[in-house]
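Question (not urgent): is this output format expected?
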Amino acid sequence: MERENTTKLQITENSLRLPQDIIEEILSRLPVKSILKFRCVSKSWRSLISSYRFIKTHLQKSTKNAGLSHHRIIVNPERDIPLKLVCWRSLLNDPFAFDSVISVDRDVNIVGCCNGLVCILEDERFILWNPSTRMAMNVGNAGFGKVFAKYGFGYDESSDDYKVFVIITLSCRPDVYQAISRLYSLKTNSWKTLKYEQDSEYHFDGAGTFASGNLHWITDDQEIVSFDLKSELDGMVEQPNSLKGDIFPTLGVIDGCLSVLSDKDYQGTYFDVWVMKEYGVKKESWVKLVTLPNFRHNSISEDLVSFCRGPNGEILLIHPNTFVIYYPEGKAVHHPRINITDPSFEAGFYVESLVSVASNAEQEPEPLVFE
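Got this back:
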């Protein structure tokens, strides 16, 4: 027994003598759950895993993971039951099972997902949550009470800051509206009021889609409006002529690029997925990625919750009661069997990460608890 313990000790000591770059390379490829366990190995490992450089490296590797083993989908059911998440890759297994993440006894909305962080609106407070580390930060109320018309969450790369954007549009008199907006910065852990000039003729609600440093919404007139998290200015995104007049357009993100899925005719015969390859460079930067046939009794886009693309070009469509995977190469359709009976009205895609929800080292994030 003594010899066996000595051998184990020698192996552990020898493993710790690996070159630092080799240790970092190995750890940066592991899932978050495993990495968190390795913080107990030594002070140097804990310091490495907690370092800004390692967290950034791990995020980059997780994002580029070809097998999507670090990619997750979070779903918000229609009724007050637990939020649910599932690994992208497990959708290919039949049947797959959701994991109940957290019990909810109040109204909850998914504001957005970015770099492994999920922003949730619970009642009137905004919460930044890392589902992989299970840590969360209550960032408070935007100052509008319980009424939020539109909101979004994203990352400002120029300042290395995560931000929550909220707008409420008030009707002053017939056809005259006043937009009041607030912006939260995780770096400063504070809210501020913006001079947001929203054109009264554009009406849109709900969560914005984050891509290329901007939040985006589809208006009632099917225009794409945007908000730049760096410049804090609103704008419009030009669309190709072929998208004009499309029915039920839905915004999404594919390979980090803004994308649109829309119905080409009222009969719901086929649907196009467009991707903006070069953001902010006129409408010529839009490229049609794929055309999908209609494989539902009603329109694909009519009640579409969200969509994304897999590593081999497959398109995942999330509807209230079903998931659908379309394989363009073989024009095949797969309907994963799911063990969920409650319709899903919100969904988000995120990648596992070690990104902290604390704005500085002095803050203490806590496990997410709904009271």
